[in-house]
Amino acid sequence: MFTGIVQGMATVEEVQAAPGLTTFVIRLPEDKTDGVAIGASVAINGTCLTVTRQEGSALYFDAIQETLRLTTLGDLKPGDSINFERAARIGDEIGGHLLSGHVHTTATITETIRPENNVTLWFEVPEQWMKYIFAKGYIAINGASLTIGEVQDNRFNVHLIPETLRATTFGTATEGTRVNLEIDSQTQTIVDTLARLGYDQPPQPR
Description:
Elements (H helix, E strand, L loop, with lengths): L7 E11 L2 E7 L13 E4 L2 E9 L2 E7 H6 L10 E6 L18 E9 L5 E6 L13 E4 L2 E9 L2 E6 L1 H6 L10 E6 L1 H12 L10
EC number: 2.5.1.9
InterPro entries: ATP_synth_asu-like_sf, Lumazine-bd, Lumazine-bd_dom, Riboflavin_synthase-like_b-brl
Protein name: Riboflavin synthase
């Protein structure tokens, strides 16, 4: 499990492609790899991956084709920056909301608004996922727990404070960039339960 509080940015050093498998070599800040063990879980842009090898502060992760299909990891290339979070431990503060690291879909940044001291990003989402996105609800974008601002048709926005821009890759986000989305699990459960009970149907005329 993860908290959605990004612990920093790391750099993709190498992408090793093999049939059916891609290995990412990602270098974390040296003070963020203490206690890492083979088999540990780390969220890379919100995607839970397993450490398969370690060389100093460089960690190796394998991703199969299904992972690449469902996420933006297949877009990564050497030199790219990513958000990372190591798995939460019992007793850690949950500053965001609980995440599984299982990406549901991807979205595209369609607009960036940069007034003084903050940024608003608009995202376009596949329409079938919009039923889980509500104003002031939770969502995880590239592993960061964020509060949804406005919702319009198949778009929504988030408002980012300077600290979020400093600590994550959102500080350099540009229009056209794809991101990973993890829907809030509680919201998904409630919406799906109500749908099974028939409450998602329009009222019948009398």
